[in-house]
Write a structure and sequence with these properties.
Helix content: 55-70%
Number of domains: 2
Order of helices and strands: EHEHHEEHHHHHH
Strand order of the largest sheet: 2-1-3-4
Shape: globular
CATH architecture of the largest domain: Up-down Bundle
Number of strands: 4
CATH class of the largest domain: Mainly Alpha
């Protein structure tokens, strides 16, 4: 039986491929491994069966036999560790790829999430207008550093890896912010990631869930 992951029954990203199960779907597609999806509602995510898999009541989760995992980064790393295609064979290159995974989640993503929170949840606060430029400046600082490091390379460290998968997934959250336009090499980097057949298959699978939910 293939591994089972959980995803939103009705995703708040409206099929744009931004929900975190997308990262796991993409990883499975890159390594050519089958998987199944169990859709959960927001209510089900806070109930005991799901909380036993994810103590914070979020998605995605991963189940394979007796193994249950949560957190998209941990799940993608597990998939990459078990199947060839997302981590280099060379030990040093492998370590660097994993380092980029951590950088995506720990260094680049937090200010991007702050921006989404500022726009969606805090825009009615009296201090929102003053806070937004500060959040955007933190993002620009990180993108400037990333742009300098990427330079004119196709990927972060040699061939495409799980580090690129996680970094591109994080950066895609900035798609409607206008900030990415200031960094042409990062925009081109994201476009290369989106052009990968594995990404397209994962995106289409997640979009199909949104369409089905909308029609239901």
């Amino acid at each position: 039986m293939p591994p089972i992951i959980t995803a939103f029954k009705s995703s708040p990203d409206r099929g744009r491929g931004l929900a975190r199960d997308m990262r796991v779907r993409w990883a499975f597609e890159e390594v050519g491994q089958p998987y199944e999806v169990r859709l959960v509602s927001f209510g089900e995510m806070k109930q005991a069966p799901h909380l036993a898999l994810h103590p914070f009541g979020q998605i995605p989760t991963y189940e394979d036999g007796d193994l249950a995992l949560f957190e998209s980064g941990a799940i993608v790393l597990h998939i990459a560790d078990r199947h060839p295609g997302l981590l280099p064979g060379d030990a040093d290159a492998r370590a660097r790829a994993i380092g980029w995974m951590f950088a995506a989640l720990s260094t680049v993503e937090p200010p991007i999430i702050d921006l989404q929170i500022a726009k969606l949840l805090e825009n009615d606060k009296p201090w929102a207008e003053q806070r937004l430029p500060l959040v955007e400046e933190r993002i620009r600082e990180r993108l400037g550093q990333l742009s300098n490091r990427l330079a004119d390379a196709d990927w972060l460290d040699g061939e495409f890896s799980a580090g690129d998968l996680m970094m591109a997934s994080v950066l895609l959250r900035l798609g409607d912010s206008g900030i990415l336009e200031e960094y042409p090499n990062i925009s081109a980097y994201i476009a290369r990631a989106e052009a990968r057949p594995a990404y397209k298959r994962a995106f289409d699978a997640q979009l199909a869930v949104f369409i089905a939910a909308s029609n239901g």
